[in-house]
Amino acid sequence: MPKTRSRAAARKPARRQASKQPAKKRSAPARAARPARRAAAPRARQSASDLAKRQRDISVSEFFAKNRHLLGFDNPSKALLTTVKEGVDNALDACEEAGILPAISVEIQQLDESRFLVAIQDNGPGIVRAQVPKIFGRLLYGSKFHRLRQSRGQQGIGISAAGMYGLLTTGKPVVITTRTGKRKQAHHFELVIDTQKNEPKVKRDDVVQWDVEHGTRVEIELEGNYRGGQHSVDNYVRQISLANPHAELRYRGPGQKPEQTHVFPRVAQELPPETAEIKPHPYGVELGVLMQMFRDTGSRNLRGCLQADFSRVSGRVADAICETAKVATTRRPREVKRDEAERLHKAIQKTRIMAPPTDCIAPIGEALIEKALRAEVEADFVAATTRRPTVYRGNPFLVEVGLAYGGALPVEEPVTLYRYANRVPLQYQQGACAITRAVTGTDWKAYGLQKPRGALPVGPMLLMVHVASVWVPFTSESKEAVAHYPEIIKELRLALQECGRKVSTHIRRQRREADEAKKRSYITRYIPHVSIALQEILGFDDRERDRTTRTLTKVLERTRKL
Predict the structure, then answer these.
(1) Largest CB tally within 10 Å, which of 320, 344, 390, 514?
(2) What is the pLDDT of residues 130-171, one digit of tens each?
(3) 344 Cβ contact list (under 8 Å, min separation 6)
(4) How far, in Å, CA of 95 to CA of 103, rounded?
(5) What are the E-state strand segments in 294-450?
């Protein structure tokens, strides 16, 4: 051991000395052989004119082709459902506007593992030949965006976006066959969208034989994924039948034969009441929109403009608005300056104006909701509530709630929630929707149901919640969730509470009947034994024993009812 220590001690000074020695300098030839580091090339400066050459217009089709998730084409399964949804919405709107009871068929054929052909056919009025390319081959083209009346579609994007998605994923055109009358020719189109110009390109335009008196058939081939469950096409078609009891729906899924077509029969034989188009309400108009309306109006003075271009503005109300804003009623609207328009906008908010008319909204109705729920759901109890119309941001809306309880519905699972906006099911973004917030914020324990904190209630129940409005405030262009406006959430909670009181009465009655049946079973089980014991104690015959059993049963039944 001592020797080992001495050797280690001897090594340490040597190492220290070696580390202190200066490094050897490289020779000049070695330094010359080393490659010199290249200096970074100076970045070329570009002028404003060079940058300007790269700028160009971006068409709406080109934008949504790169951002298709905004329209509901996030993934293959959602894309398949969105395509069916947009086609059915257009078919229902066309039939109702033409005054025809809808008869719609939906067919999905699986061509290979990830490719599907979706075909939707209706018995509507058909489409004029000149309009077919514009409707299916141009985004933001339609008749509903500028109207204030209840309708399923709003922006003129849906069906053309579905065709664009099919073109991007398969390269196949949209196929349309349409006929406008029995004595009219049927036209067959194949077209694609030029995304850079947002213009249709017609590949085929023929006159064909079609054994349909009037209607339209749309076929779109696309990449998709078919699956079951809550977000399936099957569940969507079922929900559509609940909110549209006046429509007959035929649905055939992938792999099903024609005889396996599922038919959802028509429950109501009358169309929903026709909705009227209304003018903008002053309370819902923003300052910039107000200034634009002043520039576009055909009225000669401000008083006439307020009366003609807005709803619920009489001559007296127009005078009051102008007086509060200190602007002459005879002022030409096109000459109104920005500060004057701002004073007018503030004066509108201070002036008392009647709520907008509600004949622009067509609710489903309590009777039809209950009838549809009984036809589609095996339940012991059904109830519905339709609230009176009210207003958010100057737009009229109303809320309806349908409820089915008991029967074949699962007992230990959260309630099934169906969300609707203008009769259209909302399949995705349930957690971001005002409807879900109102349901989870309701105290369902007070109505006899289990209620976990911050979640849907638990019990054998199906909730159907419908928001109808001339302009539903969606959270995105894909129209999957209703925005959280306080006025809408308040009406939702009031409607849910009203239905909750109805189901609470039913639940209490059920429990009371169960208690009575339990007590009745006690009487049936134990009274005979009491009579036998009395017979053994008192020694009477069997006839007296039976009479005693009947007497005790009557006494206990009378006491139980009291």
Answers:
(1) 344
(2) 999 988 888 777 666 666 667 776 666 778 888 888 888 898
(3) 290, 302, 321, 322, 325, 327, 336
(4) 9
(5) 381-386, 390-392, 395-405, 416-421, 424-426
pLDDT in tens, 541-554: 888 888 888 888 78
Compute CA distances 283 → 132, 286, 449, 460, whole Å: 38, 8, 40, 42
User: Consecutive sets of 10 residues in the chain, 562 residues long: mean pLDDT of each?
Assistant: 47 49 51 60 78 74 72 83 89 90 93 92 92 86 65 71 87 93 92 86 92 93 86 88 91 89 90 84 86 90 91 91 91 91 91 84 90 89 90 86 90 90 88 92 89 88 92 82 91 93 88 73 77 82 84 74 52
Report the C-alpha gap between 447 and 456 in whole angstroms. Answer: 14
Q: Rounded distance, CA 484 to CA 19, Å?
A: 73
The CA distance from 404 to 540, in Å, is 55
Q: Which helix (H) or strand (E) holds 28?
A: helix 28-33
Residues 322/296, Cβ–Cβ less than 8 Å = no
Please give the helix or strand (H or E) that residue 468 lies within, else none: strand 461-469
CA 317 to chain centre: 37
On whether the pTM is more than 0.85, the answer is: no
The continuous run of DSSP H or E covering 220 comes out as strand 215-223
Question: Which tokens is 218 given?
Answer: 């749309």
C-alpha span between 250 and 232 (Å, rounded): 16
Amino acid at 409: L
Structural domains of the chain ordered from first start: 62-264 (3.30.565.10), 282-350 (1.10.8.50), 366-507 (3.30.230.10), 518-561 (no CATH)
Please give the DSSP secondary-structure letter assigned to residue 458: B
Return the number of other C-beta atoms located less than 10 Å from residue 285's C-beta: 19
State the Cα torsion 503-506-508-510 to the nearest 10°: -140
